[in-house]
Design a protein that fits this description.
- By secondary structure, the chain is an alpha/beta fold.
- The protein has a single domain, classed as Rossmann fold (3-Layer(aba) Sandwich).
- The chain is 42% helix and 15% strand.
- The chain is built from seven helices and seven strands, in the order βαβαβαβαβααβαβ.
- Helix 4 packs parallel to helix 6.
- The longest helix is centred in the middle third of the chain and has 29 residues.
- It is globular and about 55 Å long.
- The structure holds nicotinamide-adenine-dinucleotide.
- The site of nicotinamide-adenine-dinucleotide has 25 residues, from helix 1.
């Protein structure tokens, strides 16, 4: 129960990783505002939170809309009085709209869409909570980036650039807000399987792309988020934690 009495906002809560983050933070004692552009699915996440004896509520929040972000954050402040932890998890590539392409064929409108969802979405939500965190002289901002920022990913140059932007934004913000007791950190997942249950075996997650021989589980990203949110990580800021089964290490000798 490292997060007892803390109030956490999670964006993109209905996705695989978002749901795992909500369940984990609530399991550690935080009151969780599970937000997503899809409010109905966010309500289902709340059911998972409550099944684990956690507490929270679901809210609609579209990270691409300043009005929606401000409205949702105001609602959290109205209901819970403060925001201690922000997890900027909402994101994705042009694959969400079946428009993955090599850069030579890229359309500017798609680039803008991906940058808006990932990078500007992170910026908007952060800006909406920052004044309150500065006033309370405490806060944890945890941004979900990707190993794509470090090693690239074909047909997703926009996504890789946006995630790299999130990492450098986080470092700069960490420098600016450290004096207020606010930490800002990133987590860069490698390939994380989406349809995972407690019964899924490592064998079923098999992947040749990692040194651990498998994909990651959403709960493994959630564990890293819970750590950054906790008091134990109080001296860590501006960090980017890679959680990828060794995927970004050098080439395997056998290949
Ligand atoms: N799954 C992976 O392998 C992987 C790897 C690296 C990084 N990531 C990152 O982790 C995060 C979560 O990924 P995931 O795999 O759970 O994805 P997902 O597609 O399962 O979930 C993304 C969630 O974001 C929500 N969303 C989409 N647009 C939104 C908007 N405008 N406003 C608010 N919410 C919105 C969706 O409704 C969905 O619930 C993303 O930032 C993603 O880029 C994932």
């Amino acid at each position: 129960m490292r997060l007892r009495d803390k109030v956490a906002v999670v964006t993109g809560a209905s996705g695989a990783i978002g749901q795992a983050i909500c369940v984990r933070l609530a399991g550690e004692g935080a009151l969780v505002a599970a937000t997503d552009v899809d409010q109905e699915r966010a309500a289902q996440v709340l059911a998972a939170v409550e099944a684990g004896q956690g507490k929270g509520y679901a809210l609609g929040l579209d990270v691409t809309s300043t009005a929606s972000v401000q409205c949702a954050m105001q609602e959290v402040l109205k209901r819970s009085g403060r925001i201690d932890i922000l997890v900027n998890n909402a994101g994705g590539s042009a694959g969400l709209r079946q428009e993955l392409t090599d850069f030579k064929d890229a359309r500017e409108e798609v680039w803008q869409w991906v940058l808006n969802l990932n990078l500007a979405g992170t910026m908007r939500c952060t800006q909406a909570v920052l004044a309150g965190m500065i006033e309370q002289k405490a806060g944890r901002i945890i941004n979900i980036a990707s190993i794509a920022a470090e090693v690239g990913i074909k047909q997703r140059s926009d996504y890789a650039a946006a995630k790299a932007g999130i990492i450098s934004f986080s470092k700069t913000l960490a420098m600016e807000v450290g004096a207020y007791g606010i930490t800002v950190n990133c987590i860069s997942p490698g390939l994380i399987a989406r349809n995972v249950t407690a019964k899924t075996t490592d064998q079923e997650l098999k992947s040749n792309g990692t040194y651990l021989g498998r994909c990651g589980r959403p709960a493994e990203i959630a564990a890293a988020v819970a750590y950054f949110a906790s008091e134990e990580a109080g001296y860590i800021t501006g960090a980017n934690l890679t959680v990828d089964g060794g995927r970004v290490l050098g080439p395997k000798a056998s290949q």
